[in-house]
């Protein structure tokens, strides 16, 4: 297990290095001088030189990169130009909102999609399978922003059951604050549930054709026990990969959902910082999002052997 763990971590190191270089290069590749863009229409050479010195733009590019990486390793991503706050504090604060919504939505999606996929595979080419597959196709065809707008119109405007914008943390508002999460979570669940269901169905169908499943049934084991004890653990591996990719994508910033429901998440922070030309925040968000995606995929790689016996822990 330790050898497998070290191999996966070592394989992630080059990715992290490449991501760091790309994030730094992308910001430097933006047309124009960042200092001039931040100052706007102010024509003051002395102020421009002071801004360039404050941002470290008067140093060689290689030195700028090494300084930035060194500061990032210490948790210092710079200072926001627009908000006058540390970038790391902004990123973590806004990510906490994204994490609340995304983790809740992912858990609910798995609780619904995994059993649905198994039922569809178990009842393959029958009415239950057709209904589940058709519903999955319908959900995967709906854009997330359209689903969000539809939920706002129905439950917020017409029925007036739930708030349609804003956010209140549970720590501040108690359980009553959860009502702000209902619509965003439902929008994510409805748009992401299809991929998990279809993958779980496909992997379950493949597992049901294996000899050990037929052997378990031949021994007279109840069908429920066969499905839960023998089929589920061996079918969940490929589905875990899909869940990991979905989770990494959503945690990296569900910008569309956050914009529709005006949630102060990391995706919306990135979009607003781009419009405000707040390059330290943009750079910090991109680095955090990229490293988060790598970390989620690394976690999936480490969990995969627990569900797929074909993967050897060497």
Automatic annotation (TrEMBL):
SUPFAM superfamilies: MetI-like. Residues 95-304 form the ABC transmembrane type-1 domain. It holds the Pfam family BPD_transp_1. The keyword Transmembrane applies. GO terms for cellular component: plasma membrane. GO terms for biological process: transmembrane transport. It is a multi-pass membrane protein. This is ABC transporter permease. It comes from Achromobacter veterisilvae. The lineage of its organism: Bacteria, Pseudomonadati, Pseudomonadota, Betaproteobacteria, Burkholderiales.
